[in-house]
From TrEMBL:
Name by which UniProt lists this protein: G/U mismatch-specific uracil-DNA glycosylase
Entry-linked Gene3D superfamilies: Uracil-DNA glycosylase-like domain
Source superkingdom: Bacteria
Length: 115
């Protein structure tokens, strides 16, 4: 996100939150909780989705939703369902496991999709 918004990188949590706030970005996981052995998406079980209905009621200006993986979109589709008043996009996963694309390739795709 720092690269996309041409801002110097920071590890400071407050600076990171401010970057999102300054660019009108809400960040929320699709799943509130789950059980998993390891970090693979297919290891997830007993998942519980966040309450997006309440979230969208509280923040009605949200019109674009971005997923950082196809798995996140899959859980969203399973528990939330897409609304015709929003646009949905799957971004290239930032995960290091997504090794078939370089950081620069992922960054270029993120830039195109987000802007």
């Amino acid at each position: 996100m720092f690269n996309i918004y041409e801002t110097p990188f920071s590890n400071d949590y407050e600076v990171r939150k401010q970057l999102l706030y300054n660019n009108n970005i809400a960040l929320w996981d699709v799943l509130e909780s789950c059980e998993s052995i390891g970090s693979a998406d297919d290891a997830i079980k007993n998942e519980k989705a966040n309450d997006f209905k309440l979230f969208y009621q509280k923040y009605p200006a949200i019109k674009k939703v971005y997923f950082t993986s196809k798995a996140a979109e899959k859980y969203y589709d399973r528990y939330v369902l897409k609304s015709p008043d929003k646009s949905y996009f799957v971004l290239p996963s930032p995960s290091r496991a997504n090794t078939w694309k370089s950081f620069e390739e992922k960054l270029q795709e993120w830039n195109i999709i987000i802007h």
